[in-house]
Design brief:
3 copies of one chain form a homotrimer. Chain A has 218 residues and is α/β, with parallel strands linked by helices. The N and C termini of chain A lie far apart (69 Å). In chain A, the strands form 6 sheets. Chain A has a 6-stranded parallel beta sheet with strand order 1-3-8-11-16-19, with no helix packed on it. In chain A, strands 2-5-10-13-18-21 form a 6-stranded parallel beta sheet, with no helix packed on it. In chain A, strands 12-17-20-22-23 form a 5-stranded mixed beta sheet, with no helix packed on it. The first copy, chain A, has one domain: 3 Solenoid (UDP N-Acetylglucosamine Acyltransferase, domain 1), CATH 2.160.10.10. In chain A, a hairpin with a 4-residue loop joins strand 6 and strand 7. The first copy, chain A, has helices at residues 2-20, 25-43, 145-148; strands at residues 49-50, 61-63, 68-70, 75-76, 81-84, 87-89, 94-96, 101-103, 108-109, 114-117, 121-123, 128-129, 134-136, 139-140, 157-158, 163-165, 170-171, 176-177, 182-183, 188-189, 194-195, 203-206, 211-215. The A-C interface holds A 1, 5, 8-9, 12-13, 15-17, 19-20, 23, 25, 32, 79, 106, 108, 111-112, 125-128, 130-132, 167-170, 172-174, 186, 188, 190-193, 202, 204, 206-208, 214, 216-218 and C 26, 30, 33-34, 37-42, 45-46, 61, 63, 79, 81, 112, 114, 132, 134, 140, 143-145, 148-154, 174, 176, 178, 192-194, 208-209.
């Protein structure tokens, strides 16, 4: 077994050295961009609107894109989950929703983002997000007693309210933006923060739940 | 160089348009499900038991599945790390463990989950987890002085106790469930929370370390 | 449609059973290692130095590796983002930086890590990181008023100071290490913590911002 591994490793090394003849940073970057170009061209027709110069990521899960509008020059990291739900079958009935996601111009969404909507999510222009950010306008049911005795997946989805993120907001890595939240212009959301309440413009927040760390006076 | 990129982009676009003839949301979903079906059929035999209707995710790292039991109709997101360790070689000796993971029926585990076990992890029926959740019953050594002078990877794994998650628990995105914790029925764990102590049934917790936000009285 | 799905699923099952003849845990592990071997051989030449026995992960984004030194026997999880920036074009001008990342021997970096540098990041020997860890020595601009009115992506990158992580530090899953931070020898950083200030040696910290939970006296 060990000698097979050694032989296979040597083959790998030879293969890698062969590939190196055609490979360098620029080729890698080109392949990266072309993959994004391909997936964008393949799927952009599904969206309500999809602006020029915007690029989707690879290995993404995109559901019901017909409810999603994307501006120009916005970019999306790989492995994004971007989902709208217009109906959910619970054991008792079908629930209907009217979702809408609007993403502005020049928005940059990092890898492994998760944006999920049954109501309304608005992301302004030039919003910048780190990796692994969650934005949701809904939850699996309220926390009332009769709901808690149901399996979470069978609880009807519930939206406390729309999420609005204004222009120039910068959202740190692994932050979570919860339902019903309004984040004002040029706010900064710290890494790993959980935003459960409105954030005023020109404010830095952090923590769980996110609290104001700094206000920048005009 | 720039003109090569333009030509390659045009080729990508043509290729994407060709693929569009055969592609739509339903085809995408079908490919997604068939990939999961394939990986499930390939690997389910490794598990101690694997219930009907359960589906593994793609690009997962699964180690020592013979210690893992999975109920019916449970689903796993992509890029999951699901690991049991029955022995670890430290510089001085080999440590042995008797791991066991039991996952119930109708459980839904989100993308990028990490579940790792040397002792015992029990996940009840209909537990719902967001993405990027960690559940661990072990740590790389205690925090005693003689241990801290060893490289963390060489510290013997240490379990403070089993992790038990009862039925209908809902675990928010990016939450971490730490060793020795018991989470009662129908509890809700907030996004990005770190659960270090027991959580009573019908309770909502959040923060680091997770504290009770709401108790729902029976 | 439904019958097509049933037929396709049956084909998948047959295919999986065929693959099973050649597949088992050891084969899976071998494929995993060989993929890492290949990508390592392909890209190690780009680094300033790359020690023997170190292995890169799959599906990683690595930029300007010429500023990165890696010791021996260090391993990197899949889907890592490891980036140095030596210049950034803002709307007004080009900003120049002199980045340098030094990673020691026996370091283990988990899946989905994000390490990004414009100044200096030093990671000592035998540092162990969980998955989804962020280490950054820079931010998109300060939080001054005139900066906040610019789009975050156009704000000049700003480093509060280098990040230094000493030997034997253990960084928990989903933790974020922020600019200008010095983490002393054998410290333990809790899961989901955000480290914004220096951490003394032989100390356990947790929370947002990370605070001392335990000091281990010598």
């Amino acid at each position: 077994m060990k000698s097979i591994v050694i032989v296979l490793k040597a083959i790998m090394r030879a293969l890698a050295n062969l590939c190196k003849l055609f490979w360098n940073n620029k080729v890698g970057y080109l392949v990266f961009i072309l993959k994004k170009e391909f997936i964008t061209q393949l799927r952009k027709g599904e969206f309500h609107s999809f602006g020029k110069g915007s690029l989707l990521g690879i290995d993404s899960i995109i559901l019901k894109a017909k409810y999603i509008s994307i501006g120009i020059n916005s970019s999306f990291g790989n492995r994004m989950t971007l989902t709208c739900y217009d109906s959910i079958q619970t054991p008792d009935q079908i629930e209907y929703y009217t979702p809408s996601i609007t993403i502005g111009d020049g928005v940059s969404i990092g890898e492994d983002a998760h944006i999920t909507c049954i109501n309304k999510i608005v992301i302004g222009n030039n919003v910048l997000m780190g990796k692994k950010v969650l934005i949701t306008d809904n939850a699996h049911g309220s926390s009332k007693l009769d709901v808690l005795d149901i399996a979470p997946m069978s609880r009807p989805l519930y939206s406390k309210g729309p999420v609005v993120i204004e222009d120039n907001v910068w959202i740190g890595e692994k932050a979570s933006i919860m339902p019903g939240v309004h984040i004002g212009k040029s706010a900064i959301i710290g890494a790993n923060a959980v935003v459960t309440k409105d954030v005023p413009s020109y404010t830095v927040v952090g923590g769980i739940p996110a609290k104001i760390i700094k206000k920048v006076n005009k």
